[in-house]
Write a structure and sequence with these properties.
Length: 548
């Protein structure tokens, strides 16, 4: 039987059953098709999000100003922190929806669905009530108290905070329908809906800002999009699962406890991620000034988007591994982990390296030479890129472990990351200032990524150092060489042509990207990093998309 075109299907032949080897091949092709389709749609969805953010962030900044843009950024982070209060239940839906759908156990599937709806509805009501009571103390913690900002800015900030939390609650009430699509491995539908409503959201943003509604208009626009998007998600979920039953009384305590125990172990890691990726804006606002949040936000907006795109590569891992584990196909799970990590590192290493080298040009093209804090944003991008790379490179390992039913490793990782982030980021913002949180995050993320690998490989009973050397050594070496080459090229081009407007700068970035990509591909193909299976896989998909 021939190998299939997805990591994890390259295993020895199995005995043929009554329908022969063809049934096994079809099942593998079905699994292969789902993972590849989901990955591609997640990447496309993430790329679209980056493109939209690229064009909208500066537009919003120009229309609402530095302080209000800082408020908009910080309030967005606040709603992210409220998401922590679900005790990690959201992560458990990927596994349990996938598991019960694979087993065709629709009684338990419907119990999981109704647990999700009841829990998030009650969760939303409580969250909205809390924010009404405590919004002023929260605003003081963010440096937005009445004695630190103008009365007008305080009122707008209060409206943004309360309104955003209400919108958050509305979105959470219907979030289980989107989680169902992910658990069913229908990220194609989920991303089509997300992209469609992001377009509507962008149009709405243009309308409210051009009409002069400012920060308040942005909040109202978000509310309309969330309500309409939630309604479409509900219809899509019922179309995918005709046997879906809405009955809150099906929310069984034993099932909830099982999901809760699974989710709470992931909650620690979720908290740690928010600390590592979002705490810094709070620290800058509280220790320095809310206006300094904006350059930091621009930097994390760019390099965070790069990270998010790369994390889309292993985004289908949890439901896919859950499917394999429910079929007791552990050999394929291990192969899935090995090849998945290789592909993530293969693409992630050069992209992060290129982001570091071209950060000054990218931020100049995005923000323009007139932006006074451009240098600060560039330095933050370059510092964080190293830590973000270390963190994203464990994406396959964390997804496979959760799919195998081992969330405790992510919990231990999260505890360590939370401690490191708090101590280093708080300490360094005090001693170093603006760049302190970025340095603290990078150190924390790098050390804790190594710690996670150590935990997971101890469970797999596989040596860690040879694995890391095999996965990372050659891509890092070749990316570094290619990065040095385009650094010299960039210095020559910038000093010769002195580009200051967006189109010439983008032309330089594209030229550097072509040179970097050609050099990286040429050198990596001269090594043994990819085997015949990998080369055949890429060759097939290049032909499929007409690129070969």
């Amino acid at each position: 039987m021939s190998t299939q075109e997805i990591p994890g299907t390259n295993i020895p032949d199995r005995p043929s059953g009554p329908t022969g080897d063809q049934s096994v091949s079809n099942k593998q092709e079905s699994f292969s098709g789902k993972v590849i389709r989901n990955t591609l749609f997640n990447v496309v969805g993430s790329l679209w999000s980056i493109a939209l953010r690229f064009f909208m962030a500066k537009y919003i900044f120009d229309h609402i100003g530095n302080e209000r843009h800082g408020v908009w950024f910080v309030v967005g982070i606040l709603t992210g922190y409220f998401g922590l209060l679900d005790f990690g239940l959201a992560r458990s839906f990927d596994k349990f929806f996938a598991e019960y759908h694979t087993k065709r156990d629709y009684d338990r599937f419907n119990k999981v669905f109704n647990i999700g709806f009841v829990f998030y509805f009650l969760f939303s009501v409580i969250t909205i009530g809390v924010i009404f009571l405590l919004y002023e103390p929260l605003m003081s913690m963010l440096g937005l108290s009445r004695d630190r900002v103008s009365t007008e800015l305080f009122q707008e900030s209060a409206f943004a905070m309360i309104g955003s939390v209400i919108i958050f609650g509305l979105g959470m009430s219907t979030s289980v329908f989107g989680m169902m699509m992910i658990g069913l491995q229908r990220m194609d539908i989920f991303n089509k809906i997300s992209i469609s409503f992001s377009i509507l959201g962008a149009v709405g943003t243009l309308i409210v800002l051009e009409a002069g509604y400012g920060l308040r208009g942005l909040v109202v626009n978000n509310g309309i999009i969330v309500v309409l998007g939630g309604a479409v998600n509900v219809m899509a979920a019922y179309h995918l699962v005709p046997t879906l039953k809405f009955n809150p009384f099906m929310a069984e305590w034993e099932m909830f406890r099982k999901m809760f125990n699974f989710g709470t172990k992931l909650q620690v890691a979720k908290l740690a991620n928010l600390l590592a990726f979002q705490l810094n804006a709070w620290l800058i606002s509280a220790f320095l000034h809310v206006g300094m949040v904006t350059p930091y936000g621009f930097a994390t907006g760019f390099i965070g988007s790069v990270r998010n795109v790369l994390l889309m590569l292993p985004s289908a891992v949890i439901p896919a591994t859950s499917e394999l584990e429910s079929r007791n196909e552990k050999e394929r799970s291990l192969e899935f982990y090995d090849r998945g990590t290789r592909y993530l590192v293969l693409f992630g290493t050069p992209i992060c390296t290129f982001s570091i080298v071209t950060a000054s040009l990218v931020m100049l093209a995005w923000l323009g030479p007139e932006y006074k804090l451009l240098t600060e944003s560039v330095w933050v991008v370059q510092i964080l890129a190293i830590g973000y790379y270390a963190n994203l490179s464990t994406g396959v390992a964390t997804g496979v472990a959760v799919g195998m039913g081992k969330p405790e490793y992510e919990m231990k990782f999260g505890i360590m990351l939370a401690i490191f982030s708090l101590v280093l980021c708080v300490g360094l913002v005090y001693f170093i200032g603006f760049y302190g949180p970025a340095v603290g995050s990078t150190i924390s993320l790098t050390v804790c990524a190594l710690y996670y690998y150590k935990l997971f490989h101890r469970y797999l009973k596989q040596p860690m150092i040879p694995f890391l050397t095999r996965m990372y050594g050659m891509p890092i070496l070749i990316s570094t060489l290619a990065g040095l080459v385009i650094s010299v090229l960039q210095w020559q081009l910038v000093n010769t042509f002195e580009p200051v407007s967006r189109l010439p700068i983008l032309a330089v970035i594209i030229l550097e990207g072509l040179v970097f990509s050609a050099l990286y591909i040429f050198l990596i193909l001269r090594t043994s990093y990819m085997d015949a299976y990998d080369l055949n896989l890429f060759r097939r998909y290049l032909e499929k998309f007409g690129l070969r």
